[in-house]
Design goal:
The complex is a heterotrimer of chains A (289), B (355) and C (512).
Chain A lengths: L1 H5 L1 H26 L7 H19 L2 H25 L4 H24 L14 E2 L2 E2 H19 L1 H11 L1 H6 L4 H27 L11 H11 L4 H21 L6 H31 L2
Antiparallel strand pairs in A: 1-2
Helix pairs in contact in A: 2-6, 2-9, 2-10, 2-11, 3-4, 3-5, 3-9, 3-10, 4-9, 6-7, 7-9, 10-11, 10-12, 11-12
Chain B lengths: L2 H28 L3 H14 L1 H26 L7 H19 L5 H28 L3 H22 L31 H18 L1 H11 L1 H7 L3 H25 L14 H11 L7 H21 L6 H13 L6 H21 L1
Helix pairs in contact in B: 1-2, 1-13, 2-3, 2-12, 3-7, 3-10, 3-11, 3-12, 4-5, 4-6, 4-10, 4-11, 5-6, 5-10, 7-8, 8-9, 8-10, 11-12, 11-13
Chain C lengths: L4 E11 L5 E11 L3 E5 L6 H8 L7 E6 L2 E3 L4 H6 L2 E4 L11 H6 L5 E2 L2 E2 L1 H14 L15 H14 L4 E5 L7 H16 L3 E6 L2 H7 L2 E6 L2 E7 L5 H8 L18 E11 L5 E11 L3 E5 L6 H8 L7 E6 L2 E2 L5 H6 L2 E4 L3 H5 L6 H4 L18 H14 L16 H13 L5 E5 L7 H16 L3 E5 L3 H7 L2 E6 L2 E6 L7 H8 L11
Helix pairs in contact in C: 8-17, 14-15
The chains are: A mainly alpha (289), B mainly alpha (355), C alpha/beta (512).
């Protein structure tokens, strides 16, 4: 058994399960850094999973499908931004609305596109894998580094972080906070779209309704627990990957699979509580000089 | 009615109209028989007594979770755990029904009391975490929903599973089931409980001392502090009560004639629907039956449409999504709002001049 | 003549949307290389004038002449590009970023895609060294002390090429040592040719560091003076004063029992700064004790402590012989205390609830309004309607949201709530701030009525008119102590009051 867990196959399995959550975690992180809680990740991911198969079927190219899906993800991010920033809709309610729309919209769109009900049956081209490692997995790992560099080394990243932390300070030096938040939400949509694309074009090879199954929410928690940093988010997202991969392996054993499925959520909940407590204590300490 | 309130009603109505138009447009896009589909969606529920009964059946769980969310949100806590509380309530009721096998009359009462208690304790968890550690109750509630799901699935698979029936529990004993109110339908006693809950929820929130305290704390925390209101107490209590109502709803649903066994292995989405209801009802439990009726009507219409035409049920979720987006967008129709309010102000001025 | 001035603001007039005239023909002339004090009480119009200069508010009339050329300043960015920098009282810094990042924010040096951090740090260091600021530019802002944060704010402005620096009460948050350090820096900047506007109430600081001073009162300029040629007494005389003398036909007070005793009260704020310093006083029924003073001298902390909102204090507070150390807000309110809070919107009401719902937060427990569990809605509605009538609250009906009312009417709702319990003690903190004359007059008369009925009143107000006309005894708070206490309020001159408020005079042992 131990040998199984140490095998490279198992590591690959972990990365595979981590990939969609990781993309969404990065997406949650960049929105949170700009001061917005993007709970619509769940819906964006689902939409993207569908767009992925449709575009792949239409273009016959996984890359073109990925790019087009990213564009669509960005557009949903833009819509969310429009409602939250311009129409002043509560960000949580706007996200719930997008998620509901995604649940229904994907089924309807699939029906309109191919007449399929609930699961796609048409041929698609999935993202290629090399030695069992999907290219999207590689991309997700690269994106951790890219997002880290983006947020911490580029002018735009610095501006996103300052808008999220102290809008007045950012605006006092001429940064247009709404513009920055628009950019962050669009980027968040694009990143999340990569995760959604992978769900139906790599992790699986077809679309099934509700296939995101809570990954967007998990990402939200993972990101928060990772202090909304790309690297921190990556580590927490890995935890889910491990739990899921272990779960898949343990399904062959006598340990109840439901309890294993629960582990990542329970761990996150406890981790979140501990993390928040530390942050609160630290803030209190800073406030008291 | 003040101009402000008039405008709110107008905006809500307008949002619903737009949402319906969007759905119609989608139906035209996907369907080969769009007119038939739209007719089925709108008039289907009226076509037969059975269909109308279906509307009422579908309304019942929505009233519970809707009322629960009204109470939880009134304390300004974005607690989304009503989803998990509903699920847990259903499991607790089903498990007790099967394991205790109490006599008729007593059994549903006991099952429902424990379902409510479980739901209440469950939704209090994110609030406790928030108070003790500062963790976001929103994120915590999303996580515990899944914990609830897997916990319930675990109990289903290992405690009450009927090996002869696949992923389903032993049959729920007849003695535990809620009675049917009208012969030939599945409208059950749960409807009476639901309406009572809506009324009691209203009384709790708007007519009781504790409800007053919690709405003050929910609308301005500092004001509540200055007024000497114990904020921690009212927040905890609101989450307990709200979750208990959702848990009760889960229990009622599983003990209704619709189910003969516990079969829930994924989250059902009533918690999300509840947020739509709460938005439509403007956090007033008394209005939740009306909001629930509207959603249930749409649902039933949609399922008739799905049965009789080539359009799927899910069109309803889009309608719901668009309604929320527009109904809570503060700036949506803001120009109209100014016009309405300005007109009223001018009218008041004229009246004053005359006087 | 005008060439010697680097900046002239001429005949600035600013009227806000609600009709408040914040600046009425104000002029300000800055000579190059001077520290120019802008002096005035809270609400005298200093901030408005600075907002006009920094492009946050547009003036209704008047001219701004910068370096001899007439100009308009459209936005803060515009102001910055014209060489005007502002150091806000509430720091405009991003806590988790480093000092260098805060300084370069918005104008980041890059090499290709990335921020050139090395260059950023170098530039921040260069600017810090150029002006002799001893700062570790790689430290995170959240980890540095307040005094250093302020230096970062100044550097931020200098980095953006500010020739004219506006410093908004820069010493308000500093310790004496930090203040000394700041002054050394400011003197260096002056030697370097920078011009500074120094907003303050602290006359000794102005004497120490400023060249000239423009004094404002009630939205008007009282003139510009050479600091070396004007005495602090004269400054305070120009600064403190009232325009119209309100008179109430006030009966002499009939003193009753002691309602409140404060003994050796000491309060520190959350940053550990001493705000109330060993304060003792007694308050009797039938009198109004007015507390005057420049804001931030411990008034808020004193009020929060005697109303049980703050529970960490040294010394003792007795209300009607009961020590309130263990009592919470509710228990203290049950001793029949009414409290009009300083800021009506943040702690005085819930804007999205109705007038009725806002009227009973202090008495819904009473048997006439509620049973064990339920509220008596009829009784509440009836009483709300009565109170709306009695307190002349202008509204359509008591079901209207409080947030929709005007400031004066919101305040009336609060006053109605706090007075309707027939309190024995009333704590009125800025009861008429920012409301219309009619409502203010109404509230003042009510206070007098309650005092005549034997109620003990503490009145904290920045409105000297109000303080003078209502108080039976008048205390001036300065640095957490009563610097002076007057029992014969009519004999106190504004001049004297100003001297006590600004710390020029204080009586040794104030027996209260």
């Amino acid at each position: 058994m131990l040998r199984l867990f140490l095998s490279p196959d198992f590591l690959i399995a972990i990365l595979r399960s981590t990939t969609p959550i990781l993309f969404a975690t990065l997406a949650a992180g960049v929105a949170a850094k700009a001061g917005i809680c993007n709970m619509a990740l769940e819906g964006i991911m689902l939409f993207s999973a569908l767009f992925g198969v449709i575009f792949s079927n239409l273009t016959g190219s996984w890359l073109a499908a990925l790019l087009l899906t990213c564009v669509c993800g960005g557009i949903i991010g833009l819509v969310l931004a429009f409602f939250v920033l311009n129409l002043k809709t509560d960000e949580i309610l706007a996200a719930i609305a997008i998620n509901l729309t995604a649940t229904g919209g994907t089924v309807l769109l699939l029906l309109a596109f191919s007449g399929d009900r609930g699961s796609s049956t048409f041929p698609t081209v999935s993202a290629p894998a090399f030695g069992g490692v999907n290219i999207m997995t590689v991309l997700s790992l690269i994106m951790v580094a890219v997002m880290h560099l983006f947020l911490y080394k580029t002018p735009l990243g610095l501006q996103i972080r300052s808008v999220g932390e102290n809008k007045n300070a950012a605006e006092s030096v001429g940064i247009k906070s709404i513009r920055i938040q628009y950019i962050a939400l669009i980027l968040s949509g694009v990143l999340c779209a990569c995760g959604g694309y992978f769900l139906s074009g790599g992790y699986m090879n077809s679309f099934t309704k509700n296939m995101q199954s809570g990954r967007g929410f998990i990402a939200l928690a993972a990101s928060e627990m990772g202090a909304n940093t790309p690297v921190g988010g990556f580590l927490v997202a890995m935890l889910f990957g491990v739990a899921q991969a272990v779960g898949n392996q343990l399904q062959l054993t006598s340990i109840p699979v439901e309890l294993i499925q629960m582990i990542p959520y329970a761990t996150t909940l406890i981790g979140l509580a501990v993390f928040s407590y530390i942050v609160r204590k630290r803030k209190e300490k800073l406030a008291n000089g | 009615m003040s101009a402000e309130k008039k405008f709110e009603v107008f905006r809500l109505f307008f949002s619903i109209v737009i949402a319906l138009l969007v759905s119609f447009a989608l139906i035209f896009m996907v369907s080969k028989q769009p007119i038939a589909a739209i007719v089925a969606l709108i008039t289907g529920p009226f076509k037969s007594g059975r269909n109308l009964a279906n509307v009422v059946e579908a309304m019942i769980p929505l009233i519970f979770t809707g009322t629960g969310v009204c109470i939880m949100f009134s304390a300004n806590q974005i607690n989304l755990a009503s989803e998990g509380a509903f699920h847990l309530g259903g499991l607790v009721a089903a498990t007790l029904a099967i394991k205790l096998a109490l006599p008729a009359g007593i059994s549903p009462a006991v099952c429902l009391i424990f379902a409510a208690a479980a739901g209440g304790l469950f939704t209090a968890l994110p609030a406790i975490l928030k108070i003790k550690t500062g963790a976001s109750e929103m994120v915590a509630s999303l996580m515990i929903n899944y914990i609830s799901l897997w916990l319930c699935t675990f109990v289903l698979m290992h405690v009450i599973l009927d090996p002869a029936a696949g992923a389903a529990s032993f049959p729920l004993p007849k003695t535990s089931k809620l009675v049917t109110l009208f012969r030939g339908t599945r409208i059950h006693f749960g409807l009476i409980i639901a309406l009572a809950v809506a009324v009691l929820g209203y009384v709790f929130l708007y007519k009781s001392k504790i409800g007053y305290e919690l709405r003050i704390a929910g609308s301005n925390k500092q004001f509540a502090e200055y007024s000497g209101i114990d904020i921690v107490k009212v927040i905890l209590l609101s989450q307990l009560v709200g979750g208990a109502v959702a848990g009760l709803g889960g229990g009622v649903e599983i003990l209704s004639p619709i189910y003969s066994r516990f079969t829930w292995t994924s989250l059902l989405g009533y918690g999300w629907d509840a947020i739509v209801i709460c938005t439509l009802a403007k956090q007033n439990p008394l209005k939740t039956p009306l909001a629930a009726l509207f959603l249930a009507y749409l649902r039933t219409g949609a399922s008739i449409m799905a049965r009789t035409t080539d359009v799927t049920l899910e069109v309803v979720q889009i309608t719901q999504g668009v309604i929320i987006l527009l109904a809570v967008a503060e700036q949506f129709l803001s120009k109209t709002k100014h016009r309405i309010i300005a007109r009223e102000a001018k009218a008041a001025l004229r009246k004053e001049e005359v006087a | 003549m005008s060439e010697q001035y680097v900046l002239q603001m001429q005949h600035i007039m600013k009227i806000y949307g609600n009709g408040v005239v914040a600046n009425e023909d104000v002029s300000l002339n800055l000579k190059k290389g001077e520290i120019h004090s802008l002096l005035g009480e809270n609400g005298a119009g200093k901030s408005t004038l600075m907002k006009v200069l920094f492009g946050i508010e547009a003036p209704d009339s008047g001219k701004i002449i910068l370096n001899g050329e007439e100009t308009t300043i459209k936005s803060p960015m515009d102001a910055i590009s014209k060489g005007i920098g502002m150091v806000h009282q509430h720091f405009m810094l991003v806590p988790s970023l480093t000092v260098a990042e805060n300084i370069i924010l918005g104008t980041e040096p890059t090499n290709g895609l990335f921020i050139d951090m090395k260059k950023a740090v170098e530039e921040a260091r260069r600017i810090a060294e150029q002006y002799n600021f001893d700062i570790d530019v790689t430290a995170k802002v959240e980890e540095i002390p307040v005094g250093v944060k302020q230096k970062v704010e100044i550097l931020k402005a200098l980095y953006r090429g500010a020739d004219i620096l506006i410093l908004d009460e820069p010493t308000a948050v500093l310790t004496p040592q930090e203040t000394d350090e700041l002054f050394v820096q400011l003197e260096k900047l002056r030697a370097d040719g920078h011009t500074m506007i120094f907003i303050s109430h602290k006359l000794d600081e102005i004497k120490r560091i400023c060249n000239s001073a423009t004094i404002m009162r009630n939205g008007r300029s009282m003139g510009t003076y050479d600091v070396s040629e004007i005495s602090t007494d004269d400054m305070s005389k120009l600064m403190v004063g009232r325009e119209v003398v309100l008179t109430f036909d006030k009966k002499p007070p009939v003193l009753k029992d002691v309602m409140m005793r404060v003994k050796n009260l000491t309060v520190h704020n959350s940053q550990g700064v001493l705000k109330v310093d060993n304060l003792s006083f007694e308050l009797r029924g039938g009198e109004i004790l007015g507390i005057a003073g420049v804001e931030g001298n411990g008034q808020s902390e004193l009020i929060n402590t005697i109303t049980a909102l703050n529970k960490s204090y040294g010394g003792e507070v007795f209300i009607k012989d009961a020590d309130i150390r263990k009592d919470n807000v509710k228990a203290v309110r049950e001793l029949k205390m009414g409290h009009i809070p300083e800021d009506r919107m943040t702690s005085g009401c819930a804007g999205n609830l109705s007038i009725r719902e806002n009227m009973f937060t202090n008495q819904y427990d009473a048997p006439e309004y509620s049973g064990k569990f339920l509220l008596k809605t009829k009784a509440l509605a009836q009483r709300a309607a009565e109170l709306v009538k009695e307190y002349l609250v202008k509204c359509k009906n008591p079901e209207q949201n409080v947030g929709m009312l005007s400031g004066g009417n919101i305040q009336k709702v609060i006053v109605a709530r706090e007075f309707s319990t027939n309190p024995d003690i009333i704590i009125a903190n800025q009861p008429t701030r920012g409301i219309d004359v009619g409502a203010a007059e109404f509230i003042r008369r009510r206070l007098l009525e309650y005092r005549d009925a034997g109620c003990a009143v503490i009145l904290v107000s920045a409105d000297l008119n109000e303080i003078f006309s209502l108080s039976d005894r008048l205390a001036v708070m300065y640095k957490g102590k009563f610097a002076g206490l007057f029992t014969d309020v009519a004999s106190v001159t504004e001049e004297q009051l100003g001297q006590y408020m600004l710390g020029l005079r204080h009586d040794e042992e104030v027996a209260v």
